[in-house]
């Protein structure tokens, strides 16, 4: 890449950083959940007005998709997720969340601000841009996997490549990291309902207690997790067990909630089958019934292509700080669907080794990382 352009890029970023930091704070103060990102979308549209980026009609109501025309090259999609998490913020910040029970605990305020920043800088450099750049501001990343729907509805149609950032506590501040193939896992959320027959706690012979069977299921899932995790890194976690509410009544039902994480769809269906078998066996041995729902919306791991990974690594090594990710992380991200059938990569942006974990009530995106994120997004677009 022409070093002169990189210099222009760096000074362009310095110029907009104060405004982008303000934008990040205003998004942080008014977080929105799921697909209801009304104010967030408005702020994004306001920030992009006055540029030559052409916005198209939303595909999910509150998504923002815009395109900057380059000089006839390929089309590159840059994606930011824009939704928040149902967590009560514990930080005491001038811009702390004004919405009770909701906060930007996953740093999507940072993702959004960085993509707006990249859009503004690339707009000012559009004479040097061969590629068309599609900016996708996506709601509903947390839990509802809206990225899958957005891609199915055509958000990425005509794009040759797609890239996205996820901020990453634990990684040195401003450091860029990624790996080839799976960076993040696929997974499912399951619910198991064990049904017996409630009765007086003094007369267990008059009922069928669902709790022992449910407890055996939990223990067998723990064993299965230990074996699978050692063999192939997969995860089975039971996260909730609910049954009964007093000490002398045997309840009718027991409910188990949990999540599985895996690196291939084949492993995912094998795990689901194995859990179903355990559930059926334990229920029938205890003369109770059981049913299971398995929501595998996030059934695709984030699979960075070798070309997408190479471009990201070379730019980061040359212009930022690079650290190879040694193994995939078992978190999930619906950016996986943007990479279905096209090249590209998701990469991690370090927020500092002692930064609070994602989804923690003490989390806050580190503004010091904004500039590096914008730089990487711009460099990727300019490299096409
Ligand atoms: Zn998250
Ligand atoms: Zn996230």
What structural keywords apply?
elongated, Aminopeptidase, four-stranded antiparallel beta sheet, 2 domains, alpha/beta, eight-stranded mixed beta sheet, binds zinc ion, Alpha-Beta Plaits, 24% strand, 384 residues
Q: What does this entry look like structurally?
A:
- This protein has 384 residues and is α/β, with parallel strands linked by helices.
- It folds into 2 domains: 262 residues, Aminopeptidase; 110 residues, Alpha-Beta Plaits, CATH 3.30.70.
- The protein has 8 helices and 16 strands.
- The strands form 4 sheets. An 8-stranded mixed β-sheet has the order 1-2-4-3-5-16-6-15, with helices on both faces. Strands 10-12-8-13 form a 4-stranded antiparallel β-sheet, covered by helices on one side. A two-stranded antiparallel sheet has the order 7-14.
- It is elongated and about 80 Å long.
Question: How are the secondary structure elements laid out?
Answer:
Blueprint: H1 3-29, H2 38-48, E1 54-56, E2 64-68, E3 75-81, H3 108-124, E4 132-138, H4 146-152, E5 161-168, E6 175-178, E7 181-184, E8 186-195, E9 199-200, H5 210-232, E10 235-243, E11 249-250, E12 253-262, H6 265-285, E13 289-295, E14 302-304, H7 306-319, E15 321-324, E16 343-350, H8 370-382
Helix pairs in contact: 1-3, 1-8, 3-8, 5-6
């Amino acid at each position: 890449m022409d070093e002169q352009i990189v210099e222009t890029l760096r000074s362009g970023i310095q110029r907009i950083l104060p405004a982008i930091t303000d934008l990040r704070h205003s998004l942080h103060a008014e977080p929105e959940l799921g697909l209801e990102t009304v104010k967030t979308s408005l702020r994004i549209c306001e920030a992009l007005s006055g540029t030559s980026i052409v916005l198209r009609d939303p595909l999910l109501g509150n998504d923002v998709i815009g395109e900057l025309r380059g000089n006839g090259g390929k089309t590159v999609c840059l994606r930011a997720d824009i939704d928040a998490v149902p967590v009560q913020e514990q930080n005491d910040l001038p811009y702390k969340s004004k919405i009770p029970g909701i906060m930007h605990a996953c740093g999507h305020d940072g993702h959004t601000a960085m993509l707006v920043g990249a859009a503004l800088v690339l707009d000012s450099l559009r004479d040097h841009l061969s590629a068309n750049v599609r900016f996708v501001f996506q709601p509903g990343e947390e839990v509802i996997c809206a990225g899958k729907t957005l891609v199915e509805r055509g958000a990425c149609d005509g794009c040759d490549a797609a890239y996205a950032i996820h901020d990453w506590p634990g990684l040195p501040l401003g450091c860029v990291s990624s790996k080839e193939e799976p960076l993040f896992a696929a997974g499912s959320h399951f619910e198991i309902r064990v049904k017996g027959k409630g009765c007086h706690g003094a007369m267990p012979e008059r009922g069928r207690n669902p709790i022992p069977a449910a407890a055996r299921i939990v223990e067998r899932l723990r064993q299965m997790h230990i074996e699978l995790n050692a063999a192939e890194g997969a995860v089975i976690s039971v996260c909730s067990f609910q049954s009964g509410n007093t000490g002398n009544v045997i309840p009718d039902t027991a409910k188990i909630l949990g999540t599985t994480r895996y690196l291939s769809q084949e492993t995912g269906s094998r795990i689901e089958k194995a859990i179903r078998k355990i559930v059926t066996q334990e229920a029938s041995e205890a003369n109770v019934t059981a049913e299971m729902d398995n929501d595998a919306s996030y059934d695709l791991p984030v699979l960075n292509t070798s070309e997408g990974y190479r471009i990201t690594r070379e730019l980061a090594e040359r212009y930022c700080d690079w650290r190879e990710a040694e193994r995939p992380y078992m978190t999930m991200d619906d950016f996986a669907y943007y990479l279905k059938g096209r090249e590209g990569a998701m990469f991690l942006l370090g927020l500092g080794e002692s930064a609070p974990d994602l989804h923690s009530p003490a989390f806050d995106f580190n503004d010091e990382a904004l500039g590096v994120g914008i730089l990487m997004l711009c460099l990727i677009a300019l490299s096409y």
